[in-house]
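A.,

Following up on our hallway conversation. C-alpha cells first:
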C-alpha cells in the first residue's frame, strides 16, 4: 500500500467523537438577552457541533408556558434535532416563579456519560461544576461548556475541560 493510500485509509477510518448536548434553555435565554439583547442561534450551534462529532443525544430543557411563541420555539428546537424536555411553570403566591431543570439535567448527564466521550453543556450555572468534575473523574469524559462569560460561574468554567464563550457570533 502506498503512503498516500495508507494516509487516506487511516483518515477515512477515524471515527468522530461521540457527544451528548444538554441545554439549560432558561439560562441561555436570560444570559444572552441580558448581555446582548439577542437570542442564541441554536441552529448554527447544533450544525457547528454536529459537524465534528457523532451526536448520541441533544436535550433542551425548558419551561412549559402556554404561549404561542414558546410553542414555536420548542417546535424549532425539535426540528433542529433537540429532544425538548418540558417542566411546568410554577408561579408562587408571592409572585416569584420556579422552574429550573438542574436535577433533571444532572440525572440525564450522569446516565449519558458512560456512553459518550464528550458532554456538552450550555449553561452558566455554577451548580453544574460538581457534575462536570464527577463525569470527568468517573467516566473520563471531556466536558465542554458554552456560556456567556460574564454571567457564567467561575467554578463552572474551571470544572470544564473546555469553555467556549457565547459571543455575538453565536446569536441570531
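Then the amino acids I'd put at each of the 172 positions:
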Amino acid at each position: 500500500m502506498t503512503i498516500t493510500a495508507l494516509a487516506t485509509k487511516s483518515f477515512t477510518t477515524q471515527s468522530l467523537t461521540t457527544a451528548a448536548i444538554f441545554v439549560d434553555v432558561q439560562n441561555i435565554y436570560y444570559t444572552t438577552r441580558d448581555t446582548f439583547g439577542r437570542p442564541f442561534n441554536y441552529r448554527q450551534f447544533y450544525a457547528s457541533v454536529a459537524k465534528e462529532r457523532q451526536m448520541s443525544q441533544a436535550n433542551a430543557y425548558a419551561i412549559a408556558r402556554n404561549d404561542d411563541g414558546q410553542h414555536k420555539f420548542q417546535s424549532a428546537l425539535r426540528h433542529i434535532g433537540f429532544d425538548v424536555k418540558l417542566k411546568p411553570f410554577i408561579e408562587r403566591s408571592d409572585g416569584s416563579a420556579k422552574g429550573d431543570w438542574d436535577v433533571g439535567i444532572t440525572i440525564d448527564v450522569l446516565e449519558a456519560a458512560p456512553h459518550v466521550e464528550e458532554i456538552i453543556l450550555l449553561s452558566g450555572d455554577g451548580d453544574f461544576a460538581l457534575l462536570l468534575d464527577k463525569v470527568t473523574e468517573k467516566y473520563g469524559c471531556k466536558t465542554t461548556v458554552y456560556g456567556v462569560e460574564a454571567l457564567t460561574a467561575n467554578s463552572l468554567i474551571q470544572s470544564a475541560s473546555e469553555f467556549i464563550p457565547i459571543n455575538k457570533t453565536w446569536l441570531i
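The chain has one domain: 18-170. Curious whether your intuition agrees with the design.

B.
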